[in-house]
Amino acid sequence: MAAKRMTKSQIIGELAEKTGISKKDVSGIFGGLSELVKRELGKKGPGEFVVPDMFKLKVRLIAAKKERRGIDPFTKQERTFPAKPASKKIRATALKKLKDLIK
Length: 103
Hints:
By secondary structure, the protein is an alpha+beta fold. It has two domains: 7-46; 48-103, no CATH class. Helix content is 36%, strand content 27%. It is built from three helices and five strands. The chain has helices at residues 8-19, 23-41, 96-101, and strands at 48-51, 55-62, 68-71, 78-81, 87-94. Helix 1 (8-19) crosses helix 2. The longest helix has 19 residues, at 23-41. The mean pLDDT is 93.
């Protein structure tokens, strides 16, 4: 694994070459895909999006945490841990066909 990862422009160029469409059109497809993901993972969407044969994106809601007192695991002294607001995390899961590609 000594090779470097591809840049965005290299990916767009390679896809344009393999599919026979222009780089501008490939870039537009990625833009459309971004909008689709935003809509599906947003507030009004189902919270899940599948890129066929590649991966599944899923939103995980993390509940808010109240301020609490506890023992600091490093110093072993009692302290107050600050409150944390609710948040969202996105989880990507590889699908079977993607896993089979790297075997």
